[in-house]
Each structure stands twice: as structure tokens, then as C-alpha cells.
Amino acid sequence: MKTIYRIILSFIFLVAAVSCDDYLDVNENKNQLVEVPSGTLLLKGTLLANAQVQQGQLSRVAMYYTGGFIGLQLVQQTQYNYDYTPGDTDAVWGHIYNGILVQNAEIRDISPNLDMLQGIINVNEALAVGTATSLFGDVPYSEAIPENPSLSSPDPILDAQADVYASLQTLLDAAISIINSSTTSVGDEDIYYNGNKTNWVEAANTLKARYYLQTKQYALALNFVPIGISSAGNTMSYHPIGEVSTNSNILHNFVNSSRAGDMTGDGAFYRDLMDPGMATSRNNAKTDEMARRNYSYVNGDGSQSLGIDGETTPMKLVSFEENLLIWAECLLRAGDNQGAIDKLNELRAYLNSGAAFNLINDTDTFKYEAYDLTDFEAGGMENVDNIATDRAVLREIIEERYVTGFTTYMSFNDARRLLKSDSDVIVPFPLNNNTTSVNPQRLLYPQDEIDGNSNMPSPIPDLFSATSVNQ
Amino acid sequence: MIRKLFLCVLALLLSSSFMHAQRTVTGTVSDDTGPLPGANVVVKGTSTGTTTDFDGNYSINVQNNDAILEVSYVGYTTIDVSVGDLSILNITLIQDAESLEEIIVTTLGFKENRDKLAATYSKIEADKLVQPVENKIIDGIAGKAAGVSVNATSGDPGAGSNIQIRGVSSLGGSSQPLIIVDGIPYNNDNISGSGDSDASAGVSQQSRLNDLNPDDIESFQVFKGASAGALYGSRALNGVIVITTKKGKAGKMNITISSGIAIDDISYKHPLQKSFGQGTSGNYSPTSAFSWGDRISERPGGADDVDQSGQFFESLVSDNIIYPITQKNSTDVFTDRNFDDVFQTGTTYNNRFTISTGNENGTFFFSGGQIDQKGIIKSSSYKKTNFTIATTQKLTEKLTTTVKANYIHTSSNRTQQGSNTSGLYLGLLRTAPDFDQTDYIGNYHSSSGAITEMRHRSYRRYLGNSDNAIYNNPLWTINEQKNTSLVNRFVGSAELSYQWNEHISTLLRGGVDFYGDTRVYFWPWYTASSARRYGRLYDETIGNQEYNMDLITNFQYQLTEKLDSRFTIGFGLNDRSRKRIFTEADNFIANFRQPLNPSEISAKENISSSTFRTSRRNIRLYGRADFDFADQFILGLGGAYEKHSVLPESDNGFFYPSVEFGWTFSKLWDNSGPVSFGKLRLAFGQVANVPIAHREQTVFEVGTFTTFSDQIALEDFGGGFQLDERLGNPGLKPEIKTEYEIGIDLRFLKNRLGLSATYYQNETVDVLLDIAIPPSLGFDEVYGNGATIENKGFELEIKYDFLKNQDWKASVGLNYSTNDNLVTKLEGGGVINFTPGSSVQSVAIEGYPLGVLYTQGALRDDSGNMILDANGFPQVDTGGNLVVGDPNPDWRGGLIFDLSYRKLSFHILFDTSQGNDMAQRTRFITSYFGTHDDVGKTITLTEDLTNYDGTVFPVGSVVRGNVDNFGGGNVLSDERYYRSLYGFGDGKLNEFAVHDASWTRLREMSLAYVLDTDSFKNTGIDSIEFTASGRNLVIWTDVVGIDPDINQYGVGRGKGLDYFSNPGTRTYSFNVKFNF
User: Fold this and answer.
1) Cis ω on the peptide bond leading into residue A459 (within 30° of 0)?
2) What would the pLDDT profile of A290-343 be if each residue is shown by its tens digit?
3) Closest chain A C-alpha to B730 CA, distance in angstroms
4) Interface pTM (ipTM) of the complex?
5) Measured between alpha carbons, how far is A100 from A112 in angstroms, rounded to an integer?
6) How many CA atoms, within 13 angstroms, populate the side-chain half-sphere of residue A85?
7) Is A246's CB within 8 Å of B713's CB?
8) How many Cβ atoms sit within 10 Å of the Cβ of residue B675?
9) Residue B890 CB neighbour total at 10 angstroms
10) Bridge partners of residue B896, in order along the sequence
11) Radius of gyration of chain B from its Cα atoms, rounded to whole angstroms
12) pTM, to two decimals
């Protein structure tokens, strides 16, 4: 009898023992990786995520709020009418924190020795977080992306906007130093610059200048423009391949999607400003914007091949033009009117070269002759209303930024930056309805963060409350 | 008068001529359905005794030929058998009808007397389970067991049904009970896959439970409580259904052949108006989406005036040429014809056979069947062929094997439905009454003479002059689109049982369950919907496999004179894996009409493919101890310890205990008078649900990036990776459901009146869900344990055999149940939407029952009265969604009546569901479109009335609309009201789609006659059974136009929604069965 028990029990335990833990070891995901061999493999994703942060829906909203585009239907119309909801921010916010920051943390973890890679991701991070803080004000940064996140991770606090800008300057300094001394390469995973050190360093310096400009530390900005992006070829862009929609120009994708017709550039302030036929346009004896106007035309109901929304048209993220314009503005603010005009003229010379944009029609004309100081003096072609010369120059620089920055956040950022101290030079785009008296001063925090983060300010600032650097 | 039943003893074969002083007698104890494991065999007057093994075999030593064996088994009359000179003695026991003791097969596959169990079971007689011709086993449970609700979510052939036992206890994973067939889990998938991932639309997927051949089923039981399911621990959260299948029987070969036909009709049609034409504001327009046009009867009549100078549509269906209409003259109405073009009387042919035979060394069972069903929608079909073989073989006196194999082949074509511009009902029910849909396909000739071939013509594109048909012509849906599924399934099991001695037996059981499902979805060029306009093809293959192994040992001892005991310990392995391969092609390079190879019909960049694999395993050690003291007290202790691959390796083991206690208090009295039996039951148990596989780690994906309809993708930039937005969770725990129940079983009047009542209460903690986390942590969500769900309810079953004599038998059965469900905690406090894509959502919200209907409602004051606008109409509350209804019934009940006279028997079943709400969105939206009968009335005003816009219509006006009173006096609800507050999306009074959907239905009715006159016997036929039956014959409900069981979201947690869902059916069936 006892033998029987022994046989039965030992058989059970034998089977149980030999099979247990190995048998159960099947929870590894069979479809997706749970680790990657090198951080390089994550780089491209972070760059594409940033392309969407810079040129996705929120940049279109920025265009709605600065006379660039008109939202005609559905969500686009709603946003255009300032009925912007927190949910409208969710996608871009996700691309910043998940698309870039958490990936960067992973890259730092798995490939700490790939120094060039480390430098690039820092610049890319600075670009994304700078956009975030400029649009939303205080944002989670120092406590964002904790080491081992879990359900019990504490909610990240929001860093003050000025602190975020300060951190980004530090981050960019570090990036520049790493890139300069880097010995490894990233190659074609870097779809912005193909691993070119000079380009990355220059872009980092222009970004430093951009953020000093945004925080109105113009003198500091002036230190970095000379070592910023030095030629059009060094502009940081998202380069669409254009074979299929999912590797095309982002604006192209939008206007060719099921949302075709929901948005248009027709009838927008921008389009009239550029129209040589309009008395109020910016064209003058030295300037013919016809060709650039046609290039920038977005009718929203299908893209224009070779236009700004053409499938293969690069989308500029940090540009040679921007560097020159920051330079011009900061020189001006330092009292150097002629220096500012010279920088503006450098840009105009580049525009006049015909290399800055595609010609849509062979008959399209353009002209960007150099300005003289006299053009900005009272009664000059750029100062018919007889304002102070330096204000006239600044007004032209801001207007050029408005035009150059089309489809980016530049005009939205300027309109907010200049509201308090320089409202005389703001580009006078109109409001979108009669019930609103002030232009939006920020974009709303995302619903997902509001729902989940107990540190969000209460009440949540509305669309018309300025962020702290612009107060 | 009940006759005492007689005993039957069969002694067969091989008598031994050798007489020893002591010798061994062996044999099998069985009943009329097969062997009885665990029967007691005692040599009378001695202490020698044994029990039969898993296959009913025993072996016992006797002193001499005078020995008498006393054979007993619960629920059967004990008999004494003289051994004589036989060495093999097979014994057949007869069920003790007077005791009405019911035999239950436990989850481990053992037979038990129901009176000796303390948990709640509902047993459904196999012959009552399904009517002979139907193939949906699940629906046969409906209305028959308290606490078990079954909703046939669609009338489509083979479609799955929602089975819910004691409410819903979890938020993710399967919501359906575990199905155990012969001790082995049986796959009951109802998966959508990638090809049908939009749950609001698509087709009705089949339930794999319908693969079972009804003829193979011997018994069918529902184990409702957690204590009964504890042995299946992690898979028993939603209850367990235990099915045993037939084995052959020793003796004469028995053959049955049956053949039947079932006829399906659409059970309810949405009533449509036939008075007003296409258009808006009372004006005809042949391209309008709406039917708010002119009054058809006021047209001049005759043919329409057309413009033959330019474009036209040349039909490929008829000789018709369709020209632009310049003046609508025709008064023809096509509503009924359009409907009849698409629907038909469904037919199901069903032919089956069984062969059963055997001898003392083994048995053999073979069955097969074929079902050929044409659905009520003309293109829908379902075919099933199945074969089963089951054999048992006694290898030695102690070693027995059982092998079963079951092969099933099904093929079907389904119909697109729901929120789907290429669905059937969406186009059909929006079609204007004056549009003739017949010419649905043809060549379009433009004014310039260009010809576009095979254009789709729909009511909004009556000239076929655009690639975009907007909504499908229903004839396009059924004739041009394809949604086929082809399934091959094999289920096999093998058992080896060994009887160590009279107390101990061991069983080794292994099972496999494989199926492969190949699905093709095809939409040709010009199908409505932007994604399908230039063709779309999905080709999906699902391969599923499950392996199961158990090693069980059973010990049985009489510990003292009064204390019986039985111990079971077991060890089990389970391995489930699935692979899906999905290929998608769109933008066909030409107008192909057949689902060819994707690379033939699309350019490379328009083809994509993906593979999904899941794998999970678990190991179980389980045991059960049962004690029976003095036939009065029973105590059952159970427990399972499980380890799971889906749990963190450091903490992957869990223990699920159960305790059952029963006190048969009626034993206290020798003569209890009218009370023949009384038992009090108490049970406690835990069951669980483990996490989804592969959620432990954060994965890398080949990311896509979009902010609003502007996606770019890594795969098109040469590849790369991204950490997913969902954070992995290495700390996952199983959901644990703890249930307590108390019940009483009473029988009166010599067991003719039985009553069973149970109250239960359960709580599931650590319910798994996707929990949103602040995105600034780097991730959007984490799959984790974060919710608590409670269920409590009361169940009552009563059966009264009120008439029982030689010729007449009649009984009435009643069941009643309630279930109160409450989501008591939801981490993050959010809303979990089970019905993505619907304006009225079925959701989980903390503090509400699971599944409540959530949408935009009317603006109300604190006391709940609607705040009306200046014209007396309701306004939309724009402050967010509101809970506007609960699809869970307050109570359900069933009433079963059986009557037989000699060979003629009659069966009828009513069941009811009370207090459940439903969003009748088809009715709501067709009111908006102006096609529903609700909005087709013409009224003469008896007072001045104001419409939604504030226009006053004077008394005596003859207008189209309804007089309503929303609380501010009578108002005129006309086109302005229906097109403003009804409709899609934001700013609509979706709450008004939600109504009470209580129903009572005549679920089943059948009449059967058995012909077995002696004159037959010479022909070799034992008997012929004729059966005529009907299902869903009448439904009493306030729901208009659709069976309230229908659910847009099919099988799952999202309930109470209808949105252009394919209709339900009413079935009549006739069957004849020959027994040889």
C-alpha cells in the first residue's frame, strides 16, 4: 500500500519539478523587442516625433491664431474659433514625453559611449522641450521621465518656464561640447544632418539664440548667432522622402487626408500680406513676393506639388533664415540699426538667389533688393507712417520673421513675446471672430496630463493667459 | 402512481469452471448511459469492498460461489447480486427515480450526487439543450437556468452569443465562462482579429462553442459559484460550463440517423415610412441624404421627366438606363421591394448520424453531421461538417484507455453591418422610400462620353456619377463584398486510467484543441467609405492551439461507520498559443472583383502584413477533500495552486481555496411529512483571472507619429524603434474574485415539488485594466490591477411534477434571478469605454453598474425636469456625457412547461428580462434621416403649435410630424426638431435613443412524437422520433424594429446598443430521427 503512495506522489513531484519554471518561461513578447542592441536604432524615431511636434497639428493651430490659415470645418473650425480643448494637445504632448524624452533616457542608458548620438539627442530634446515651454509655460521637466516609472511613481512637478529655458541652455552647452569632442558617428540614422558635427553644433547655437530671444535676453542671444547656422545648407529640416504618405511632408499628409477641405490658406491675412495686388501687402519697389506667395499657398484640399505642402518639400525646424533674423533683431536691440539691416539684407540676398523656395509657375516673379537705412527713415518705403527708424527696422524684421516662419511657431511666439513691450511692431493679423478681444497667449495643457497629474495648476490657465516669460 | 422500478442484472460470458476457495470477480458497473466510476461494490456480510474506477471497472475477491455482491451508487437503487460461478460480472444499476437524485459531473469529470454537493449548479438536460436542427448550442441554455443569461447578439448564421453567469466580474479579457468538455478546456473564442477590429462595425464572428455537435453531448451543466470553479482557478472567473460527451455503450449496436430542416425568418423589421420622398424641407431631391422631401401621393404620377441629353447610368443588372431626373412624377414606393431584395427565408438542412456499440472490453462511438445553412440575408451562409470518434478499451483488468477525436470544418460568408458605410442595414434603412435600388451596378456615361465601368449606384448617387457612393447600396453589400471564414478544427483527448486497488485510482488525461481560421474580407472598387473606395482586401489567418494534461489520483475511504471520505489530488499543465497573420491591400490597381493574391491586385506600397503571436502556460496542483457524515453533513474542501507564465516570475504562484458545507436537515426527522428533502448550503470560494500575455515588459515598436490625420511612420524611413506608449508592468497580479453563497434546497410531496434558492455575493479585486498615467512619466498608460467590481444576486429554481401517471406526465419549472453589479473602484477615476466609436457608449464608471449607457443628455434642473428652450423643446446638456441608462436587467426569469401523453410530448419555454435599457440608435438615426415610420405621420393640428424653430402652425394645419410635450405644453416635432436634436456626434440628444428594452419571449416551443410500435421492429428500426419546434416565436417588448437581444458590439462587455445591426431571427424546425 505504501508503495503505491510513493509511486503516485513521486510521479507527481517528478513531473512538477522537471517542468516548472522553464515550462513557464514563455512570457517574453514574441512579436516585439523588449531590448534593442544600440541606442542608434531609437534616434530616427525621436527625430520624426520632433518633426510632428514642430510641424504637426499645433503648428497649424499656431497658424490659425496668427492669420496664416483658416479652419473651415469640424475640429479645425472649432480650434480656429478659439474653442481649443485640452484634448487637442494630447498628441503633441505624447510625442514630446514619450516620443522624445523617454526614448532619450533609454538611449542614454543603453549607449552611453556613443558620444555623437548623445549630443544629437540633447539638441533634439532642447528643440522639443523649448517648443513645449514656449507654448505651455511651466512644464514637467526636471522630474519628468523618472528612472523606473510605475503606477506608484509620484506625479512630476511642473518646472517654472524660466527654469526650463535655463535648463535647456545648459543642455545645449553640454550637447555642443559633447559633439565637438565626439569620436563616434551615427551615420544615416540621423535623418536631419547625416551625422554632421558642424551642422549639429551650429543648430544648437541657433537654438540657444532662439531661446534667449524668447526669454528676451537679446544680448545673450547675440553671442550665439555668429556661431549659429551659417548657411542655407546647414538648416535643420525634416526631409520627406515622399514615396508614400507616411514618409511625406506632414502638411501634405494633412491636406490630402480625409480632413481635406477642413482648412485653407485662402482668404487668410498671410496670403493677402504677400499679394502684390493688395495695396496693404508687403510688396514694395525692392520686394516682389509673388513667387514666395505662390509657393506658400495651401488651399487645404489637396497639396501643391513643389509647394510648401508638396510631398517632398523639406520642413524647416531650425533655419539659416531664423539665425539671420535673430541676429538682425538682436543687433537692432543693441542699437546697431545698420548692422540689423545688413543681416536682413543677407537674408534678402539669399531669397533673391532663388534657392530659398521652389518656383511653382515659370512666370512667378520675385525680387528682394537690399534695403538701405533710408528705406526705414521717416517717409521711407518701409516707414510711410513716420515712426522711429529703429522701430521701422524692427517692424520689418518681425514681419520677415512672420513670413519666413510660415507653418512654424515663429509668428505665434513673436506675437506673444512682443505683446507687452513691442506691440507697435506686431504683425497686425486680425482676430478670427468678433467675440474675442485678445489673441491666444498659449496653448492648453493636455487633457491626459490634467487627468493624471495632481501637480497641474488649478485652475488650469486658459488660452488667453500669458506664460510667465511673456507677462 | 409511480411504479417501483425493477432491477436489472446482466451476467455475461466466460464463466469459469474452476472453483477456488478464494477468487477474483471483475466487471463493470454502469447505468443506461455508460460506466459509473466510484460505485461501491461490497461482499455482503463482510468488510471486503471496493469502488469502481474511472471507467466503472471493479475487481473484488470473494470466498466462494455463495457470495453476494451489494452494489450501490448515489442516486441509484442498491442491488444485491449473487456471484455464482461467474468471474466476470457486469452490473447495470437503475436510477432511483423516486429519490429524484440528480447526478452532477464535477469540473474534474467525476459524477457526484447533487444532493451531496453544496455549491450551486444548474443542469440542463442534453435533450432539452438544443432543438434538433439548430446548431447554436449556446442559445439552448437561454432561459433555462437561474443566473445564467444568454443573449444571441445577432441572427447571422453561426454568430456568437453572450453568456453571462452572475454578472460581469472583469474589465478585460474574455467575459465568457470557461467551457470544460470531458475534463478538458474547450476553446470558445469569438475573436475579431485585425480584419474586424472595428467593434462598432464589421461582421458577426462565430463562436467556436458552436463547433460542438449537439448529438455528442451527454450532459450539460453550469457551475455558477466560485467554489465550484475553484479547481479551475484562474480561468473560472466567469463561471464554468461542464459538458460531457457520449461514449459508446456495451451491448447491441445502436444507430441513429436524423435529418431536419429549420426555417428562419427575420424576427422584427424596422418600420419605415412610405409617404414622403427623398429630399429636405418638403422638396424632392434625388441626391439628398434625407427623406424629408415631398408627399409622394401629391406627385402627378407616371414616369419621371428626365434629361437624356447628357450623362446617364447603364445598368448591368437590368436593361434600364437611368437619366438625370428633371421632374419627379412617379408615385412608386420601393420600401418593401428594396427590403425583399436583400432578405429571404433562411433555411438550414441538418443531417446527422451516431453509431454506438461495445462489449465488455471496450466501447465505440462514432458520430457525424452536416449543417448547411442559408441565412436570412441573401448572401450569408454557414456550413459545418463534423465527425467524432470515441473509444474505450480495457487493456488489462486495471488499465483502461479512452480516446476521443473530433474534427470540425466550417465555412461561412458573413455580412457587413453596424456603423459602417459598407454595411447592409445602414444603406438600406437610410434609403429613401421612392428610390429603386435594383440597378446597383452599371456603367456610368458622363456628358463628355467617358465611360466608367462597374460603378456603384446608391440612393445618394442615383446616376452612379461619382467614385464615392457615400453609403452602400444594400445589393452591393450582399453581392459584391465578401467576408468568408473557413475553419478547420481538431479536438482530441486520450485518457489512461489505472486502478491501484479498491481505494485508489489514477487517471492521466491529455487533450489538444487546434483550430485554424482563414478569413478573407473583400471590398471592390467603388465600395462606400473612403478607405475602401478603390478596393480593400484583408486576408487573415488565425492559428490557435491548446494543450492540456492532467494527472489525477483519487482516494476513497470509509473512515468510520458514518464518515465517508474521498480525496483527489491532481497536477495539470496547460499551454495556449495563437498566431495571427494579417495581410492588407488597398488601392487596387484595377477594378478587380475577386479577392486575389494581394500582390496581384495592389502595388507594393499598398500592401502590408503583420504577425501577432501570443503564448501562455500554466501549471496547476489541485486537490479536493470531501467528507460525508451520517448522510447528513457534507464538507468539501478544495484548493488549487497555480503558476502562470503571464505573472512575474518572482511571484507567479497563487492559491485558490474553496469550502462547501451542506446540512441535509431533513434527515433529522424519520418521517418529515410533506418535506421529502431539505438541505442548507454554504459555500465560499475564490477564482481568478490572470493578466493578458506579454504585458510584463515595455516593448519597442516601429513607431508611427501623428497629431491629426497627418501620420508619418518609421517603417517608411528605413525602420527604427520606439519604446511603446504603454509601460510594461512587472508587478502584475491576478484578479481575484471571492464569493460567498448561501442556499437551500427543498423538496416536497415525495420529491415532486423541488425548490432551490441561492443568495450570492462576490467581489473581484485587483481587476486588470489599462490605467492612464501622466504622460510626463514618459508613458500614457500601464496595464495594471486597479479596479474592484461587486456582484450580488438571488437565484430561485422551482420544479413541480404536478402530473405523473402511466400515460400523462406534466411538469412546470420556474427560474428567477437578479444580479446587482457595481464598479466600486476604478483607478484613475476615468471612464472605460467598451464600445469605442459609438455616440452612446457602454462604459464602466466608478459607482455605477458595469456597462451603463453614457452619452449626451438633455439639460435638466436639480429635480430632473428638462430645462426647455423658448419654444418648449429640450436642450442638450453640453457639460459632458451623462449616464442615461443601464442595459443590465433588474431581474430575469424563465417558465418551462412540459407535458407528455404516452409517446407525444410538448415543451414550451417563456423567458423574460425586465428593467434593461437599450440605445435604439437605428430608430434614432433613421428618424433623423426621415425614413423611420415614427416620423412619417401626417397630422391635422387641433391647436396652434410651435415647432423647434419657433414657427407657429395654426390649428387645422396639415403637417408632417408628431405632437410632443416635453413638459412645457404641446409642441410640434417636425423635420426641424428631428434634424436638429437627432443625428450624429456632438450636440445631439442621444439620450432620446435610450429606452426601456424589457422583453418577454416565447423562447421555445416543441412537439415530439415517438413511433415505436412492434410492427417496426421487424424492419430493424427501433423507433422514429418526429419533432417540430420553434424558437423566438413571439417577443413582447417596447423595443421597435429589432430583437432586443441584438447587440451592435457582439459578444463582450459593451451591451444594449443597436446601430444598423443585422436583425435577429425567428426559427421553425422539423426533424425526424431513426433509431436502429
Assistant:
1) yes
2) 999 999 999 988 899 999 999 999 999 999 999 999 999 999 999 999 999 999
3) 9
4) 0.95
5) 17
6) 8
7) yes
8) 14
9) 13
10) B813, B909
11) 32
12) 0.83
